[in-house]
Amino acid sequence: MRSGDFTNDAFGNPITGMAIANPNMVCAADPYFQCDSSGHPIPPNPDGSQAKGTDCSKIPANLINSVWSGHDRHLSPPNANNAASG
What's this model's pTM, rounded to 2 decimal places? Predict the structure, then answer.
């Protein structure tokens, strides 16, 4: 999640049927973050919009606030336990 990838929950289980809205594309017909056919986020245009791809829950790295990213490194990692994974 720290890298902008929200495809799994805190336990590592896939989250399906959900995509994160791109705030730069609120008025667009498809306002969600877009990934290519390999599942990688499509690089955004200078205005933050993205070319059409597949709706996904991955935020492109250059749209993540660098101040928060620096602060985030000092936080403890998630401590969720997934008993099913051992």
Answer: 0.72
